[in-house]
Amino acid sequence: MEHQPEKEQQPEQRRQESIKPYVKYSGMAFQMIGALVLAAFGGRWLDAQVGNNKPWFTIGLLLVAVLATMILTIVSINKK
């Protein structure tokens, strides 16, 4: 059994592997921002439709969006 030397990675392959985490995490950031924006607009619309003086739907939807994006982020980071 011969010991084969490890193949050296090509420079382009190393560059692509170093870029992948940036793309992944920047995509997650945009996903979080999008979810919060949609929750805010949806909550404001619901509050206007119901006629609430206080923004209960907006607060509720924003809390749900924050919790959901945090859970998705944790799951995504733990998954390899």
Give an overview in words.
It holds the Pfam family ATPase_gene1. This is Putative F0F1-ATPase subunit (Ca2+/Mg2+ transporter). The chain crosses the membrane at residues 22-43, 55-77. The chain is mainly alpha-helical and 80 residues long. The protein has one domain (19-78). Helix content is 79%, strand content 0%. The protein has two helices and no strands. Helix 1 (11-50) packs antiparallel against helix 2. The longest helix is centred in the middle third of the chain and has 40 residues, at 11-50. The protein is elongated, with a radius of gyration of 22 Å. It starts with 10 loop residues before the first helix and ends with a helix. The mean pLDDT is 85.
Ordered list of secondary-structure elements with their pairings:
Elements: H1 11-50, H2 56-78
Helix pairs in contact: 1-2
Overview in brief:
This is Putative F0F1-ATPase subunit (Ca2+/Mg2+ transporter). By secondary structure, this protein is mainly α. It contains two helices and no strands.
Beta-strand residue fraction: under 5%
Overall average residue pLDDT: 85
What structural class results from the helix and strand content?
mainly alpha
- N-to-C order of helices and strands: HH
| Rg for CA atoms | 22 Å
**Gross geometry:** elongated
How many H/I helical runs?
Answer: 2
| N- and C-termini, Cα separation | 32 Å
Question: Segments where pLDDT lies below 50 for 5+ residues?
Answer: none
Number of domains: 1
What does the main sheet amount to?
A: none
| Total strand segments | 0
Percent helix, as a range, is over 70%
